[in-house]
């Protein structure tokens, strides 16, 4: 899969191609405010307008790694 591909396929439409935001908040510096478990929890238990995503555990792990390291 690859976290960047998971991001492009499931997150970019709202959070922007470069994680700079769009109709949803920017995620380019999410690692400065949230831990790995915080980000994973947000994906598993979305709030507000964020939809529930049908991701495997592997895809979730990869996209969280992508968000926190890039």
Can you offer a commentary on this structure?
By secondary structure, the chain is mostly helical. The chain has 5 helices and no strands.
In which range does the helix fraction lie? 40-55%
Main pleated sheet: none
Give the CA-based shape: globular
Which residue ranges are poorly predicted, with pLDDT under 50 across at least 5 consecutive positions?
Answer: none
Compute the number of strand runs: 0
Q: Any chance you could write out the topology, listing elements then pairs?
A:
Layout: H1 3-10, H2 12-15, H3 30-33, H4 36-44, H5 57-69
Helix pairs in contact: 1-5, 4-5
Which characteristics define this entry?
single chain, 70 residues, mainly alpha, 5 helices, 54% helix, globular
Task: Give a short summary of the structure.
It is built from five helices and no strands. With 70 residues, the protein is mainly α.
């Amino acid at each position: 899969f690859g976290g960047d591909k998971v991001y492009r396929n499931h997150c970019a439409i709202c959070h922007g191609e470069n994680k700079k935001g769009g109709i949803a908040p920017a995620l380019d510096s999410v690692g400065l405010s949230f831990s790995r478990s915080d980000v994973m929890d947000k994906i598993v238990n979305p709030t507000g307008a964020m939809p529930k995503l049908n991701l495997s555990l592997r895809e979730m792990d990869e996209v969280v790694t992508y968000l926190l390291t890039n």
